[in-house]
Design goal:
single chain, TIM Barrel, Arc Repressor Mutant, subunit A, three-stranded antiparallel sheet
Length: 320
């Protein structure tokens, strides 16, 4: 059981998470990303080692029954690799989900590479939250950073993500979350930002996480600074963008003072987290934001474990 599930761990982005590892014994992935924290391995287009769905259902059910007081916000389906390669994903989620307490949500962390497959989309529609990664829309950069299996093509991946985003928001109340991981000198230019922003602003995602290396990677790669990430993020107007921060990284950033109109305009362009607000603005502006929230001019919107502040009458394309 301990090989199949892990945690719970506290996730800043999703709360108390109990992990479900769909490839617990070896890396099985159709990417071999430069930034992967797992040991490098040749990409594969299917799982060679597959654990039956009933073993997961039994392990999860026994864990929940044995730990009734354990705080769990979300069951996070992941893998030492790509979880949508797991061939019994639909069977697993459809069997398991009806037995879960209503407060426990289901989440899958995917690289988005197989969303063009109808069988994968059918399984993903059963999840409460789906997170996918999309590091570049430039074919050469995509090949360089994600190092995909030869059967994968960027245009198919792009169309698959767009198709699933529409299906997911039309057929469910789920949250679709995108993620971009930036590497210095690889996918961090303004051209990359503009191309990704243009595509992602046209599909209904609830949140976009943009970050950089935080753990030692399997391959040689260099992270960006918070300032460099902020510059990249400036192109993503109208989207709820979450940037993982550490207090020490923000200590030298000058904090701004905004009046009411400036604050509303800023939040109309891009909703901000409390972490963002505290890093960017002085105490007077934070107090103003609190006042405007109490007056219902601004509002907090929750996506996963992250809340974003935006105008109450916001016309952004983000779906909450």
């Amino acid at each position: 059981m301990q090989n199949l599930i892990f945690g719970p761990i506290i996730s800043r982005r999703f709360g108390y998470s109990l992990g479900i590892d769909l490839s617990p014994n070896t890396k099985q992935c159709n990417f071999d990303c430069l930034y992967c924290e797992l040991q490098g391995a040749k990409p594969q287009d299917s799982m060679r080692e597959v654990i039956p769905a009933y073993e997961y259902v039994d392990s999860i059910s026994r864990y929940l029954a044995s730990n009734p007081k354990q705080k769990i916000d979300v069951l996070t389906f992941t893998a030492n690799g790509e979880p949508t390669l797991y061939p019994h994903l639909l069977e697993l989620i459809k069997t398991l989900k009806p037995s879960l307490p209503p407060h426990i949500k289901t989440l899958i962390l995917s690289n988005g590479s197989l969303f063009w497959q109808q069988s994968v989309r059918e399984a993903l529609l059963e999840f409460d939250m789906v997170k996918f990664s999309l590091d570049s829309l430039n074919p050469r950069t995509f090949a360089r950073i994600d190092r995909p299996h030869k059967s994968l093509h960027l245009e198919s991946i792009k169309k698959g993500i767009a198709t699933f985003a529409t299906e997911f928001t039309q057929k469910t109340n789920g949250k679709l979350i995108g993620e971009i991981l930036l590497l210095k000198g690889v996918n961090d230019t303004s051209a990359h930002a503009k191309e990704l922003a243009q595509f992602l602003s046209r599909i209904p995602i609830s949140r976009l996480d943009i970050g950089t290396l935080d753990r030692p990677p399997a391959h040689k790669a260099t992270p960006l600074s918070i300032k460099e990430i902020e510059t990249f993020v400036s192109y993503f107007e109208g989207l709820c963008v979450y940037i993982p921060r550490r207090a020490s990284q923000d200590s030298n950033i000058p904090k701004r003072t905004l009046n009411k109109e400036e604050l509303i305009q800023t939040l109309s362009m891009r909703p901000l987290t409390l972490e963002d607000m505290q890093a960017l603005f002085c105490d007077n502006t934070l107090a103003l934001a609190d006042t405007l929230t109490k007056s219902h001019i601004l509002k907090w919107e929750q996506v996963g474990n992250i809340a974003f502040l935006c105008p109450t009458n916001s016309t952004t394309k983000v779906l909450f």
